[in-house]
Design goal:
The complex is a heterodimer of chains A (321) and B (306). With 321 residues, chain A is α+β, with helices and mostly antiparallel strands. Chain A has 8 helices and 16 strands. In chain B, helix 1 (11-22) packs across helix 9. Classes of the chains: A alpha+beta (321), B alpha+beta (306).
Chain lengths: 321, 306
């Protein structure tokens, strides 16, 4: 039995549920939009991992039955709190609900997509960059600074081909640095920013699902293709093959981070070099699946249904990243 | 230069700084090295990881060690909440990565999962504790009043006076003994699952610093036997400096709390002195012999570079 934890209004969660139905794989939905209302749980830790159950509106699921769990946490504004919860205590109660679910998922022996621990690396792109360097993929020349003079020097050394973007988990649009923005560099005194040499070439999005890999070649004139339409550019996606060493590096990164599903952002230069920018632990793969027709959600459904065989229990060897 | 990341009022920072300076080392204490008046620049690519940290025209590098108590604090005064959240996230992200990029000893070089969630519930550590052979307490999370009562009744049948309600996101604990306690718990269960566990006796604090396990006061022989397992746990958690609390229950000793940022107030004068000495040895091995000794400790404890 598969457990899906997420909101039915979330398009990725909806796709996962639809694919599970399509594949004929039994699943239960723990709707985080309303949880804990309508559900009853008992999760019991003794000298081993958790045992117990979850009951929904018309079902009961014993934890021992689980072959896989897919979870996609919701923002506070996507949740309906229990009626007796005051507005002031909503945030604390949501944290308590999530904490309970997290400790359960961290300790289940079945496949969990994804556990929280490995995903924490995504809050620091530079921390991930250090892991990427070890994986064999290339890291763009990067500067993190709070010094305007250093930022200008990097800009000149990079022949004015520099982008800036957030280095934390806060989503930002990748933009080129323009000379007219130099006046704003004085704001760096309040905190560091990330600058990177612009890497020419095409974007390649890689989704790893367990030991499977789906590479999607993206063609767009936009600096950040995710926002191409805002800048009047088109996006074209198609499946592509990666060199074996690059594919192995991507799978190795996912494994090192203990992530059964990742979205890895690469760029391939005209010289055929592969740079890695980010490993996303909660990828919105719907966008890529719709455009490239790659069966990412089917692979995910298979993984959740089949579980991980003992020799593929990544947690045994995964870094506690 | 030995860098201490923390608040001037932080007692561990003050003590470690004192210990380093007493041995003639230069130190610098700051809560955030990435904001004015510091000038920070870090260049990273496939071939190099080079940083520069300058204050008033003087370089603070090369750094000989970093002692970490803060994850990049920003004074909220004058900030709009959204901007503060953004610059805080950026600073924390930069600091985490920079610490992992440094060649020198860093205590603690926190893994991302702990850096971003320093107050993990005890249950989050359950799997690692079990894997290291440490005794853990039985716990149950339930939204069902009957199940909570059954847990309490089972404890009662074992002669245990009550159960403990332990919210996952706060340190507050509530002992449930009377009928009205259970009724109040059932009311809470109407809107949130609750976590219940065993009551425990007096708490024994232990601090793992590298290879050393330092007890607060006199630990029982039964607890002292756990020292190798505590070291194993600290190593597995990649923490060179971590506090564990042990408590005696009706079923024996169990780990009842883990503090990834050890609490100064949990230790007396003797233990504090030993802890500080052990920290100083990790951060600044003073002789060749001790350097070798400390290097193996760093490698073991995760304080060294990966």
């Amino acid at each position: 039995m598969i457990l899906v934890c997420g909101g039915i209004a979330d398009s990725v969660t909806e796709l996962v549920c639809a694919r599970l139905e399509d594949c004929g794989y039994p699943y239960r939905l723990l709707d985080l939009g309303v949880y804990p209302v309508g559900y009853q749980i008992k999760w019991h830790w003794q000298s081993s991992g958790p045992s117990g159950y979850i009951t929904g509106p018309d079902w009961r699921l014993d934890l021992e039955e689980l072959t896989g769990v897919y979870v996609r946490y919701l923002e506070a504004d996507c949740r309906i709190p229990p009626p007796q919860i005051t507005r002031e205590s909503r945030s604390a109660m949501n944290a308590e609900y999530d904490a309970g679910l997290m400790v359960l998922l961290e300790d289940l022996s079945c496949a969990v997509v994804n556990r929280l621990g490995g995903g924490a690396s995504n809050h620091s792109k530079l921390y991930q960059a250090l892991l990427v360097r070890q994986s064999g993929l290339l890291t763009p020349p990067t500067l993190v600074t709070n010094d305007p003079a250093e930022a200008k020097r990097f800009y000149q050394e990079s022949e004015s081909e520099v982008i800036y973007k957030s280095l934390s988990g806060v989503r930002s649009i990748v933009r080129r640095v323009r000379q007219e923005q130099f006046a704003r560099l004085s704001l760096l005194r309040y905190g560091p920013a990330q600058f990177q040499a612009f890497i020419p070439g095409d974007n390649v999005r890689v989704h790893t699902v367990g030991d499977q890999l789906f590479a999607t070649h993206i063609r767009s004139e936009a600096v950040d293709y995710r926002y191409a339409s805002q800048d009047g550019h088109a996006v074209h996606m198609e499946p592509t093959e990666l060199p074996a060493s690059v594919a192995a590096a991507c799978l190795g990164l996912a494994r090192q981070l203990d992530l059964l599903l990742t979205g890895i952002d690469l760029k391939v230069t005209p010289n055929g070099e592969y740079y890695c920018f980010e490993v996303n632990p909660a990828p919105g793969f719907l966008y890529y699946e719709q455009n490239s027709r790659q069966p990412i959600s089917t692979a995910l459904a298979d993984l959740l249904y089949g579980g991980m065989s003992p020799d593929k229990q990544w947690r045994q060897g995964a870094a506690h990243a | 230069m030995h860098l201490l990341l923390g608040d001037p009022t932080d007692s561990w920072c003050a003590s470690v700084r004192g210990g380093l300076e007493a041995r003639g080392y230069e130190t610098h204490l700051t809560a955030n090295p990435f904001e004015h008046p510091y000038h920070f620049a870090w260049r990273l690519d496939n071939h190099q990881s080079k940083s520069r940290l300058v204050l008033d025209g003087l370089s603070l590098e090369p750094l000989e060690s970093v002692f970490v108590r803060r994850t990049g604090w920003i004074d909220p005064t004058g900030w709009r909440p959204d901007d503060l959240n953004y610059v805080q996230a950026e600073t924390q992200a930069a600091l985490l990565a920079w610490l992992w990029g440094l060649e020198c000893p860093v205590v603690n070089r926190y893994p991302a999962a702990i850096w971003y969630r320093p107050q993990l519930p005890l249950l989050s550590w359950q799997s690692l504790l079990r894997g290291c052979g440490l005794p853990v307490l039985e716990q149950v999370i339930t939204s069902v009043a009957v199940e909570a009562r059954a847990f309490g009744e089972r404890l009662s049948s074992e002669g245990v006076a009550g159960a403990v309600y332990a919210p996952l996101t706060t340190d507050t604990r509530y002992l449930l003994t009377e009928e009205h306690d259970w009724e109040a718990l059932a009311a809470i269960q109407g809107c949130a699952p609750v976590c219940l566990t065993y009551p425990h006796g007096p708490v024994q604090f232990a601090c793992v610093v590298g290879e050393r396990v330092i007890w607060q006061g006199a630990a029982t022989s039964e607890m002292v036997k756990l020292a190798p397992l505590l070291r194993r746990f600290a190593n597995a958690a990649q923490l060179a400096f971590v506090e564990l609390a042990l408590g005696a229950t009706s079923r024996g000793i169990g780990v009842i709390a883990i503090e990834t940022h050890p609490n100064y107030d949990h230790f007396g004068e003797t233990a504090r002195r030993d802890i500080v000495e052990a920290l100083v040895h990790l951060l600044a091995p003073p002789t060749d012999w001790t350097r070798q000794h400390a290097s193996s400790a760093l490698e073991f404890s995760g304080a060294g570079r990966p």
